[in-house]
Amino acid sequence: MIRDDAEALRTAAGLAEEFRPGASGRDARRELPRAELDRLTATGLLAITVPAEYGGADVPAATLAEVFRLLASADASLAQIPQSHFAYVNVLRQQGSDEQRAFFFGEVLAGRRFGNAQSEAGTRHLQDIRTRLTAAGDGSYLLTGVKNYSTGALFADWIPVLARTGDDDLLHVAYVPADAPGLTVTDDWDGMGQRTTASGTVRLESVRVPEAHVVPHHLTFTGPQLHGAIAQLLHTAIDAGIAAGALAEAVDFVRTRSRPWFESGYDTAAEDPLLIQRFGELDLRRRAADALLATAAHAVDAARADLDDDSAAEASVAVAAAKAYAGSAALEIADALFEVSGTRAALDSLNLHRHWRDARTHTLHDPARWKIQHIGRYVLNGTRPPRHGLL
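Below the sequence we write its predicted structure tokens.
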């Protein structure tokens, strides 16, 4: 069990070094990282946000964000898998009863993993949730619906399902065992990037869920909240990690494989002043993404210590700024990898394009343009961001 921040960061850094050598091959073969995820779980890293009163390390958002950045710098798909795990640990922290927290935090401390069944395809928009919890009359619910992009579900022990109750249409999270009758998980994800996240389809056919496993998620958004800020912070950390990983790969390639342009007059590509200039520009982007990520994480921690409408707004805006910037930095650096490395870098056998594919796929989770809109409204008119869980 991990006990403190320093141990969490050491563990994440060590795992990143373990996972990095095999990341390209796993992506190229679409080899799901079951062994690697089991290794990660065995370290206790997935339990680091369990509150101290329940036996966890209760690390701050700053530590959690850095853990994700480190993991994503090695393997962006692997880092994506536990993102929902931490989001739904946080749901329990915010709205779970004492009994629910004691039970589910105990599960997490014992090494159980949460997946997710949240998004639905073919609806009017992201928050048009049609999966339904219907009271069965015996103290339980029947859960019916189809979920898509269910990252982590294939590897999960528990699958949190976002659903609305049939009588009042209010949003709840049902925590369902992965082997529950009527629940099936299909590995049908075929995205061009994040290829080994197994972000497939979850089908729920009258799955029975006891009332004790249902959390009133709608209450989260009735007051100041950090649910969206924390979830988006982890997405930001993944983008920052992709940027760092792509830049490191570019540095290694240019140092060891690239030839100098004949007009430069230098013996090695690494001496070319034009390449040196470009690497300086890219490193500025990487450093800025890391700095904004750290600033956003500290804003989340400050808001958690003294939560009100103002501190929640500051945290959401800080995370929105970091996410918008880190996403564009990841895309630019992953693309520039080829610009600085030369023709040989485009060989499919090298699989250097996985960084751009991961960045392009991951940054589609939610549009940066809306984040910038909310930043502008806040800065210019003092309008706080909405409480919809995506900021």
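Strands lie at 132-135, 140-147, 158-165, 171-177, 183-186, 201-210, 214-215.
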